[in-house]
Amino acid sequence: MAIRLRDSSDDLPVNHEINVTPFIDVMLVLLIIFMVAAPLATVDVKVDLPVSTAQPAPKPDKPVFLSIQADGRMLVGEREVTAATLGQAVETATGGDREQRVFLRADKAITYDTIMQAMNGLRAAGYLHVALVGAEGAGQ
């Protein structure tokens, strides 16, 4: 006959705390996976932008157009300007109203860099409202 001296069973006491170590491990693994996969999700694709089929916005009575021709010449209205005189020419055309929208239209052959230089010239002159003009396509 065996004599038992303790009244309690051999079970360990119940622990009421949550063990978060496995949760943290899983979250760190997921973080690493997303950090590795995120750069792979971006793709550099050459884009040939289509003609817009959106309804054209109403045009003002006397719009100010900045045109860039295929040879790189810039014109405000019908007056030829250079990058240095662009701000003064647009200010003259708008009557000094910096809130007036300037419509920028460029030939297909013009590089994106040339368009950005023109937009930077407008921004430096204080004209922040620039609309890009495109050919109107057939409605779908």
Would you give an account of this structure?
It is a single chain. The chain is an alpha/beta fold and 140 residues long. 31% of the residues lie in helices and 14% in strands. It contains three helices and five strands. The chain has helices at 21-41, 86-94, 112-124, and strands at 64-68, 74-76, 79-81, 102-106, 130-132. The protein has a five-stranded mixed β-sheet, covered by helices on one side. Strand 2 (74-76) and strand 3 (79-81) form a beta hairpin.
Write a compact overview of the structure shown.
The protein is an alpha/beta fold and 140 residues long. 31% of the residues lie in helices and 14% in strands.
Q: How would you summarize the topology of this molecule?
A:
Elements: H1 21-41, E1 64-68, E2 74-76, E3 79-81, H2 86-94, E4 102-106, H3 112-124, E5 130-132
Parallel strand pairs: 1-4, 4-5
Antiparallel strand pairs: 1-2, 2-3
State the strand order across the main sheet: 3-2-1-4-5
Structural class: alpha/beta
Approximate helicity band: 25-40%
| Major sheet | 5 strands, mixed
Can you tag this structure with a few keywords?
alpha/beta, 140 residues, rod-shaped, five-stranded mixed beta sheet, 5 strands
